[in-house]
Amino acid sequence: QLQLVESGGGLVQAGGSLRLSCAASERTFNRYDMGWFRQAPGKEREFVAAVNWSGSSTYYADSVKGRFTVSREYAKDTVYLQMNSLKPEDKAVYYCAMGLGIPPRDYWGQGTQVTVSS
Q: Within a 13 Å sphere around the CA of 94, how many CA atoms are in the beta-carbon half?
């Protein structure tokens, strides 16, 4: 059974950085598009960033363009989200997703909390 395990969340001050990681449990990782979503309290889950199966294309929500970078490491079956210049409004539970298509929605991780203090 495919599993996605996120790590790297935590508490950071505004302007700081965090890197989220998401490791897939199966070697079929390289066939899938990968992405990140987030959900703040009382809000719907929203798309943040994605990278296609080959790593040749990346996609970002307007709210994170220029601050977040998504990447993938095939040798480790892992996708990353580097988050710089964090703002209080970036506070949310961040979810890793895997699937066919952009944004990917077929498989989900358990989520990791990111808190940004002002």
A: 30
pLDDT value of residue 26: 79
Dihedral, 78, 106, 41, 14 alpha carbons, nearest 10: 30
Q: pLDDT by residue (tens digit) across 24-75?
A: 987 778 899 999 999 999 999 999 999 999 999 999 999 999 999 999 999 9
Residue 76 gets the label, from left (phi > 0), alpha (psi -120 to 50) or beta, of alpha
Distance CA 53, CA 101 (A): 9
Which residues, listed in sequence order, are joined to residue 39 by a DSSP beta bridge? 93
Task: At 5, list the tokens.
Answer: 């395990």
Which two three-digit tokens encode residue 47?
A: 């798309």
| CA count, 13 A, side-chain hemisphere, 86 | 23
Q: What is the mean pLDDT of the chain?
A: 96
pLDDT in the model for residue 59: 98
Per-position b or e across 26-39, b if 16+ CB within 10 A of its CB:
eeebeebbbbbbbe
β-strand partners of 19: 82
